[in-house]
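Lab notebook, design round three. We kept the backbone fixed and only want residue identities now. Task for the bench partner: fill in a sequence for the structure below.
Input structure tokens:
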């Protein structure tokens, strides 16, 4: 509806990534007049420069490793050669295919939402103006779903570092790579470039990589990286500068044990955080308060301005697609019907497609033991599972954590082939409230990777309550 103050909508969604699309569809489903404003293209970071392209590269790396080990299966092979330009073409084609399959523009239009191209900026709590055109859009409620971006290195020469979103622009595979930080995407790229023949170094300021993961997951991934030839340096004092070398490469200047060190590489990738893309959004004009690099919200995803909701990366709670979509549906529902629905992330499985894969859900062992020292922990090494032996993918383990009565699963953590899929199976059981004994009685198909879930549940039943668990084998 056009008014003297601008076009008016019941709900205006800013951003058309996974969260924004979900919010727009939900608000339209509830009968609201909806506008979804997107500055670039639908799909968001995940489709275009994040999860999808990184996963395609990870699959390419996996195929290379399988070919290189084919001789162990009695298959004659020639040494495989990666054609980088063809790999990039394949990645871009998959991005287009995924974008087409998701069909966000068509889905929004079919639902009755209006998709508007432009960069929105608040000029008051109920109005945004589109950059360049000056088009004014008025909303009774807003759902901000702007997503995030890679954090730049705040050191001299920090602009010389690349981000994951730049990988497809490389003219060739670098001979050497330094990855600063151990974020999920950075670690996936570590295994990708290692498989592609690069000399890879991971630099982390904390005492272990993947600090948010279960400590055994972090340890086994670290040990496996090192066994593959990836250099992992943890506990560094920090990176102080990045410089250009005379040969056209990059020099990372960092500290370790209070001594300055340097590392010369062809490519530096920064993987040190994911702040919200709030630049130019005009949150001050709307009266929206921020904290650090995000917008704090209440249980119903309201900012301090009650009719402005924030979902996905922008509220700083979780940087995962599945979380963003869940939050967006709740936020849009509240924007239309009033604040009544929340979306707590009690069970939020996550992981990475490194080599080996890793994943987890629920409490880590340290978290569980801090709450209940008598919680029960059981491990099953992949080396004891027939499917892993058959596939020659025996690195890893599944860890299950239960309460002392073995009635509820508190967490699950996995390293190894199909780890993310294994954790999905456990997550389903946890969401359904399945007790350990019931899970142990499930007749999993044989031989499969998910059969490890039943084996681990059976071992939970046999572990003495006082046991502190055992160290999993690598």
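Proposed sequence:
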């Amino acid at each position: 509806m056009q008014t003297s103050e601008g076009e008016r909508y019941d709900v205006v969604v800013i951003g058309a990534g996974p969260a924004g699309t979900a919010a727009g569809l939900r608000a339209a489903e509830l009968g609201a007049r909806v506008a979804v404003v997107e500055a670039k293209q639908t799909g968001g970071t995940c489709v275009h420069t994040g999860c999808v392209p990184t996963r395609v590269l990870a699959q390419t790396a996996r195929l290379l490793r399988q070919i290189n080990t084919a001789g162990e299966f009695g298959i004659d092979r020639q040494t495989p050669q990666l054609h980088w330009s063809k790999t990039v073409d394949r990645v871009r084609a998959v991005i287009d295919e995924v974008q087409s399959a998701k069909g966000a523009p068509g889905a929004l239009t079919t639902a009755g939402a209006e998709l508007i191209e432009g960069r929105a900026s608040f000029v008051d709590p109920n109005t945004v103006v589109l950059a360049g055109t000056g088009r004014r859009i008025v909303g009774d409620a807003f759902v901000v779903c702007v997503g995030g971006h890679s954090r730049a290195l705040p050191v001299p020469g920090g602009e010389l570092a690349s981000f994951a979103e730049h990988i497809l622009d490389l003219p060739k595979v670098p001979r050497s790579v330094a990855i600063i930080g151990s974020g999920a995407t950075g670690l996936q790229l570590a295994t990708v470039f290692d498989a592609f023949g690069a000399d890879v170094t991971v630099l982390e300021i904390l005492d272990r990589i993947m600090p948010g993961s279960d400590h055994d997951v972090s340890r086994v991934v670290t040990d496996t990286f090192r066994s593959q030839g990836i250099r992992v340096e943890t506990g560094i004092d920090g990176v102080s500068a990045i410089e250009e070398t005379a040969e056209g490469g990059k020099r990372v200047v960092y500290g370790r044990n209070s001594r300055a060190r340097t590392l010369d590489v062809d490519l530096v990738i920064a993987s040190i955080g994911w702040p919200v893309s709030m630049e130019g959004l005009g949150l001050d004009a709307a009266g929206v308060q921020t904290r650090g690099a995000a917008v704090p919200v209440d249980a119903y995803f309201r900012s301090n301005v009650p009719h402005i909701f924030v979902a996905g990366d922008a509220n700083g709670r979780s940087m995962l697609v599945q979380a963003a979509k869940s939050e967006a549906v709740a936020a849009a529902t509240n924007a239309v019907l009033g604040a009544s629905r929340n979306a707590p992330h009690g069970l939020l499985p996550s992981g990475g497609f490194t080599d080996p894969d890793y994943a987890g859900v629920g409490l880590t062992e340290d978290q569980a033991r801090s709450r209940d020292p008598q919680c029960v922990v059981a491990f099953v090494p992949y080396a004891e599972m027939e499917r892993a032996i058959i596939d020659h993918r025996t690195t890893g383990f599944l860890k299950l954590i239960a309460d002392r009565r073995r009635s509820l699963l508190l967490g699950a953590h996995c390293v190894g082939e199909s780890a993310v899929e294994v954790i999905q199976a456990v997550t389903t059981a946890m969401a359904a409230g399945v007790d350990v004994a019931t899970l142990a009685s499930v007749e999993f198909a044989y031989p499969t990777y998910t059969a490890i879930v039943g084996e681990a549940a059976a071992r939970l039943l046999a572990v003495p309550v006082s046991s502190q668990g055992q160290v999993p084998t690598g």
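Keep this in mind before ordering anything: Confidence is low (pLDDT under 50) at residues 467-474.
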